[in-house]
Amino acid sequence: MEENASGNDLGATLRKIRKTVGLTLDAAASQAEVTKGYLSKVERGSASPSIAVVSRLADVYGVRLADVFIPDGERGPIAITRANERTQMNRNGIELGYVYEVGSPRKANPRAEIFFLALPCLDKGVEPPEFSHPGEEVLLVLEGQMEFTFAGTKILLGPGDCMQFDPSFHHHGVAIGGKDAKAFVVVIPDKKEG
To answer: Same CATH fold, 111-188 and 3-69?
Structure first.
């Protein structure tokens, strides 16, 4: 799928969900901490949002991240996603080279969001993006070496190393050793009340 086509589809889906929940462009942008102009570009397919922005919009709209990518009618009790079928978010990976691929978008009523993450080696002085969100997270390093910072503490991880943590604390990871790193990530959101 071409990047523009997927961006248009994603934008149209986000617009439809926003209108379904009855939010104006202004209100949605404000609650998701983006500008109205940027959200308008995303909805028109002329801007590609990061996974963090899509996640914030899903939270604002009260839907799961999977609901943004795959309509209910296309999900079932089992989901098999082949390696060449994974959907990329931000093919350029924000501006720093982080690339997320949605691991299992077709599972009906998922309790977790699954991603494959490519982490770049960053130039000296470049600050990685920090993340913080509710729920629980599991990270398994598949390739390369990474330095993971959790609540200010640096942790070195290599292939096969796995960690489970409370993502409400500030956290981020970067590849080290001169090569990109790859990880398998599972995000388990807090249960929605009601």
So the answer is: no
The continuous run of DSSP H or E covering 69 comes out as: helix 65-69
- CATH class of the 111-188 domain in this structure: mainly beta
The domain limits of the chain are 3-69, 111-188
| Burial class, 144, CB count within 10 angstroms (exposed 0-12 / middle 13-18 / buried 19+) | buried
CATH fold label, 3-69: 434 Repressor (Amino-terminal Domain) (1.10.260)
Cα separation, 87 vs 54, in Å, equals 14
The side-by-side arrangement of strands in the sheet containing 99-102 is: 87-89, 99-102, 113-119, 181-188, 136-143, 162-165
- DSSP string computed for 169-180: S-EEEEEETTS-
Could you read off the pLDDT of 98-136 as tens digits, one per residue? 787 878 777 777 788 888 999 988 888 888 888 888 889
Which stretch of DSSP H or E encloses residue 121?
Answer: none
User: How many C-beta neighbours within 10 Å does residue 59 have?
Assistant: 16
Query: What amino acid occupies position 156?
Result: L
